[in-house]
């Protein structure tokens, strides 16, 4: 996997390290980003994606038959 170098404010890096419980700023940021992505996937799995919302909106606007 390709690597990317990112510059962060030292105070932000220290806060992330404390939050993640790591001794390395790189490990801390990697853990935070992985957690962020996993949360997004879990939310999408529970709530559906934007494409699902468009599909469902079409159904809601159409009149129901038999009523």
Describe the protein's architecture and organization:
The protein has one domain. α1 crosses α2. The protein is built from three helices and no strands. By secondary structure, it is mostly helical.
- Counting H and I runs of at least 4 residues, what is the number of helices? 3
Q: Mind summarizing the main beta sheet?
A: none
Shape: elongated
- Work out the number of β strands: 0
What proportion of the residues is helical, as a percent range? 55-70%
Give the overall average pLDDT. 80
What is the count of structural domains? 1
Low-confidence stretches: none
Query: Cα distance, first to last residue?
Result: 57 Å
> Which structural category fits the helices and strands?
mainly alpha
- β-strand amount: under 5%
In terms of quaternary structure, what is this?
Answer: single chain
Identify the notable features of this structure and list them briefly:
67 residues; mainly alpha; 3 helices
Give a summary of the structure in a few sentences.
With 67 residues, the protein is mainly alpha-helical. It has helices at 10-20, 25-47, 50-61.
How are the elements arranged and paired?
Elements: H1 10-20, H2 25-47, H3 50-61
């Amino acid at each position: 996997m390709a690597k990317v170098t990112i510059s962060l404010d030292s105070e932000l890096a220290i806060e992330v390290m404390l939050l993640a419980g790591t001794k390395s700023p790189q490990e801390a940021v990697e853990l935070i980003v992985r957690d962020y992505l996993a949360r997004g996937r879990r939310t999408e799995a529970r709530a559906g994606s934007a494409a699902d919302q468009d599909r469902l909106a079409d159904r809601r606007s159409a009149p129901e038959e038999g009523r």
